[in-house]
């Protein structure tokens, strides 16, 4: 199948950026999130976290990773968000249909020629059940000595099919 070759990705990105700058979209006045909120969600391309919560640019910090897990780096960013930029609430927002559910960490391979014995650790945070992993992550936040007890901590599950939010089961 012959198709005219598209410009390389980086050229398309740079061209799009020139259009963005020309449109002068403007930025929020302040780097402080107006809702004093941090959202931790998955990197899944189907999630647009601000509009599904009625928020917009400037409303909240958004931290994303595979599975919306509370990793050491999420804790790092939360501490800075709270102590430097004044956020007071965290919403953990994992989702149904997540590619992390059932992922076998052993299926992840280093580049060719590298033996597994030489690898630095890779914390994959595998997930088998959304309710369980969300409960674990909420507990991790509540127990973290870096997170103030005054910070409000919430967890909801996003139904990726409808965009609706589901309260997790409470034990
Ligand atoms: Zn996901």
Order of helices and strands: HEHEHEHEEE
Distance between the termini: 56 Å
Multimeric state: single chain
CATH architecture field: 3-Layer(aba) Sandwich
CATH class: Alpha Beta
Largest sheet: 4 strands, parallel
Overall structural class, as computed from helix and strand content, comes to alpha/beta
Average residue pLDDT: 93
List segments where confidence is low: pLDDT < 50 over at least 5 consecutive residues.
Answer: none
Helix content: 25-40%
Strand content: 5-15%
What's the total helix number?
Answer: 4
What small molecules accompany the polymer chains?
zinc ion
Topology, number of strands: 6
Spatial order of the strands in the main sheet? 2-1-3-4
Q: Could you say which overall geometry the principal axes of the C-alpha atoms support? A: globular
What's the name of the CATH homologous superfamily?
A: Carbonic anhydrase
How many distinct domains? 1
CATH fold node name: Beta-carbonic Anhydrase, Chain A
List the helices and strands and how they pair.
Layout: H1 9-22, E1 37-42, H2 49-52, E2 60-65, H3 72-85, E3 89-93, H4 130-143, E4 152-155, E5 157-158, E6 165-166
Parallel strand pairs: 1-2, 1-3, 3-4
Antiparallel strand pairs: 5-6
The structure holds zinc ion (ZN).
